[in-house]
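Example 3.2
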Amino acid sequence: MAAKRILILTNRVPYPLNDGGNLAMRAMIEGYHKAGWQVYLLAMNTSRHYVESDKLANIYRHIHAFDTVDINNEVTAFAIARNFAFSTQPSHAERFYSNRFADKLTQVIRDFQPDVIQVESVFLATYLPQVKRQTHALTVLRLHNIEYQVWSRLAEESKGMLKKTYLGNLSRRIKAFEIKAWQLFDLLFPITEADAEVVIKAGVHTPAYIAPFGINIENTPQASSSNKLYAYHIGAMDWLPNEEGIKWFLQEVWPLVHKQQPENEFFFAGRNMPAYFTHMDIEGVHCMGEVADAAAFISDKSILVVPIRSGGGIRVKILEAMAAGKIVISTDVGIQGIDALNGTHYIAANTPSEFAAAFNEILKDEVKATNISENARKLIWSRYNERAIMNGLLDKVKELLG
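Structure, written as tokens:
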């Protein structure tokens, strides 16, 4: 029997593997490939996340095919104003539409003849009418999060009236766009039960299978027992929830933590680090910018700090930290989508005083810290095992293919 063929569309190149989105897309690509499928990856190489040609030549060489199309998706004040005044679509959807990408997509579908086309961003749903005209392939949308929730929460957190008004309008546009898109696909892959419930409550009847991010726990290195006072955060800093969360943590939380534990140190890193972070001079804080090796960066650190107050989906870095036996201190928004219990698998903190108390609890009670890290690792093994998740997902795809 001939191998099944899947075309995966991404709105950026899944590289480097230093943020949750890229890791999640890579895991899906590898999952299909290991299952014996022919995998064709067609990715936008965007101006905001551009990958140089010498690096492109050395990644995803083991799959059936890998192509990219250069896309200018820069955000400009003029484009935002024009979209706000003259369009009903969210600006994100317009930024990711390209005639060059549409032409390449037409050619790939014609030549590759996929059985399944999987889309890794809801904002690529603008290409779906074109896809439907060309092929009867099963169309799948992976929901990395509920996008409108991200922007709605950012609007709530915003203090300036102009920004709050714009983000509120944007979140409403995205919500309308998302609900329409969910109904156009043959199958949805939400990554959390909460996200699946949002889809159902919106009146969408598209079949769905919950497919959380999976961890290859057998190959996950264990956290070092040393440097118990080293805390860290790593994440793409061009994603507004990360930037806003770290800004709040440094301004409101860290002074309390450092006052009660002056020997404590906090390291943070991420792609596209805003310049003002690198220029900050805060005692005990180290801004590392973009690190070449994320695994090396976190290897000697034991406490993952997740101060995110907006956003959605699953924080992949939390799953990786738990798998490695690190302690996680997270807001309720940061931990959402993960079946973890406060005090058992992680410690919840939503205010500056709660973060300070969480650090104190971990650093003063080594037995409790050890129990939390062991429980968290067991949770990843039982609930977020990469192989089991992918097997269930493939069964669902095959069921709909017939």
